[in-house]
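Hello,

Our lab assistant flagged a job as stuck in the queue for most of the afternoon. It eventually completed. Since we weren't sure the result was trustworthy after the delay, we are filing this so someone can double-check. Below is the sequence as submitted and the structure that was eventually returned. Let us know if re-running is recommended.
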Amino acid sequence: MKRRWLVMLGSMLLYCAPANVLAQELTKDIPSPTGWGALLAVIPIIVILGLLFLKVDMLISGFVGGVIAMIIGGISIQRANELLLSSVPAMLSITVPIINSAIATAVFKSGGYASALVLVRRGIRGRVEFFAAFIVLLMSVATYMSGIGGGTAMVLAPLAFSAVGAIPEIIAAMCLAAAVAFTTSPASLESGIVSKLTDQPVGNYVDTMRLYWILFTLLAVAIAFYGAKKRGTVFQSDESEEHAQMTNQQLWIQTAPAIFLLFAVIAGPIINKAMGAPILGPLVYLVVTIALIAICTKFTFKESSNALIEGSQYILTRLFQVGIFITFINVISEIGAFNVIVSLAEKAPVDFIVPALVLAGFAIGVPAGAYVATILALVVPIGVSLNLPLLAIGFITMGVGLGSQMSFVNITMQAQASGFQIDILEVVKGNAKWILSALICLVVLSIVLL
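-- returned structure --
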């Protein structure tokens, strides 16, 4: 039992392993501690995990663990400074997710997603279950494009509440859709970190996980449809005054930037590969999307450009934060802590390594869901060290995302509680059955496919 907990704890912190040091390289050039030295080496990891469970800020937790590691290993301040100056730039170099997140946020602010909801509402003629299903689909797609589940929920939850009220199944479905989208998105911090830790391009990871994003999104859509149908939900309010004055044609035009961006993000890599050139690369779809916002919405060119720049603030801030945290994890790696964990993990039954890491990520995501990226730092690198395939890494990442949707401190959960005007405890209770069911599906997939 003790060994299993060490594996689970270490796997989570491994996700935080330095961006400039791949997980499989942690065992290189660093002596592997033995005996009491091995026990001392993992103390900083246990301390960080304990603090995160107590909801202590991630940087404070990392700092405390890093200082303990410096004392144990005799690491100098000069070396720690070198690690800081390499870790932060490495995280800020995750360019494509930054660009995609900024563009998608600009589309949000221009009203493209709200227009899409109005169009669907007009088209379904009172069939609220179809509206509920579309809200969840839009939640998944918008999060996939922006990489930010909390930001998507802040926009869509109030719209959903005003239209159909606080339906538990719809809320749970939106949370599930957000979790599987931001953990597999080409624009998310999480995908960027997985890319760094696995030394794989973000595109490879996204391509590997796209099918499973779609499958779990369909599951979420089905949950919302079932909930609205079962409860006999009816529309709670009319269209907003602004949208009521718009024709369907005007709404379609305002939705055009969102449609184009979704096409570019999903179909772009296929088109680029077929053409042998970045016909729909980041530069092209950035310029075209911002131009469409300025042409098709009430935003001017200046407002569209400002929305793009402001949209980058969230992910840049988080990347900077994780870069500092990873500095402390780099310090811990230098005393051989990860070597100890890898050696323990290698002794576990091969068939159960991936399911165990999925469950470990989920379990830590529940109390520490505000720090999904940090939790990945605990889980992902051990999988990479064991040469697990990219699909396994993706399942582990999804597991962490699902755990975050049962967390009182997760931004998406807080946005749902605010948007649907209910206590966050009610969100957690309503999510429990559906999120746990999705977790079971994920564990089964990890056993069958890996």
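-- support follow-up --
The delay was a queue issue, not a problem with the job. The result is valid. Residues 7 and 341 are 6 Å apart (CA to CA). Residues 1-28 have pLDDT under 50 and may be disordered.
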